Amino acid sequence: MQYYTNMLKMIQVGKLGTTYTIPTGIDDEGTGTVVGGYLIAITQTCSLYWDQVRVWAEEKGGYHFQNQCRGFLHNSSPVAPVTNVSWHDVIVWTNALSEKAGLDPVYRTACGEIIKDSRETNADVVDTAVQTNNNGYRLPTSLEWEMAARWRHNGDDGSILVGERYWTPGDYASGATANYRNVAATRAVAWYWDEPGGNLTRPVGQLQPNHLGIYDMSGNIWEWTFDLHPKYRSERVLRGGSYYSYSVSMRVGEVSSFLPSGASSNFGFRLVRWQ
Q: Dihedral sign, CA of 106, 108, 111, 113?
């Protein structure tokens, strides 16, 4: 499948304005509610697209980044996911992308100013970013990510019924036909450490998509979300597992977290926006 880095491919999750009850947790022990109708990128953000926007942001938009790293320093493909970018960097980059696209940037200070600097000297400002309902690009919430990862069109392959519709169980990779212990089912949808040669990122969109047509929601790279971790309140939630994770981390109910200033070779992100 061919991807063009000068455009964003997104798909709508649920009906606009409809509130969905979704299962949560690896054992489906909890539930959460999510308002549908948001758009989510069908692939993780790739390195070349990151650089295109970053260069524009620095040269014309008045933006500054703590980490300028490109994923293809870790993988030679420019359409592998961007990595080595912190949550702070991503918050600022999404604002730059919104401005470049003529949309209203989402992340603001309490006074409504656009946040344009992810450097350490501005960390306190980014940490207290307000996620507005503007129409620009942003990170998903943890539950928005989970809703898109679990979405099913039918009750096949062990789907569970919650809130009057079917969902992927919490111990499956997104789009898999069996739980994470099934090697064939998990390898069909996710790049992870158990995979032979699984020590680097891969170009986006190479494996089977989930029921919504979204690729790599499990594996390849951990994806930043907007949310603070409910227990580790100084950390931001990551979802999905990575090439550097074992199959247990491919589970759609798995939740991890890291400090928002942290930049790692297995952290990246996926874009969301309101219509």
A: negative
First to last CA, the chain: 26
Rounded Cα distance between 108 and 94, Å, is 11
The enclosing domain of 220 has a CATH number of 3.90.1580.10
pTM of the model: 0.95
C-alpha to C-alpha distance for 113 and 195, rounded to whole angstroms: 45
Residues 40, 93: contact at Cβ < 8 Å? no
195-248 pLDDT tens trace: 666 678 999 999 999 999 999 999 999 999 999 999 999 999 999 999 999 999
Torsion sign (Cα): 110, 12, 154, 26? negative
Q: Which residues contact 145 (CB under 8 A, 6 or more apart)?
A: 217, 223, 225, 239, 240, 270
Domains identified in the chain, total number: 1
Tell me the pairing of strands 267-268 and 222-228.
parallel
Residue 226 · residue 239 · CB < 8 Å: no
The answer to whether residue 264 is domain-embedded is yes
Q: Which helix (H) or strand (E) holds 23?
A: strand 19-24
- Only one residue has tokens 């948001």, namely 38
Strand partners, 161: 166
Question: Which ranges of the chain does DSSP label H, i.e. alpha helix?
Answer: 47-60, 87-100, 123-127, 142-150, 183-187
CA 209 centroid distance within chain: 15
Q: Which amino acid is at 237?
A: V
Instruction: Indicate whether 222 belongs to any domain.
Output: yes
Is 24 within 8 Å of 144 (Cβ atoms)? Answer: no
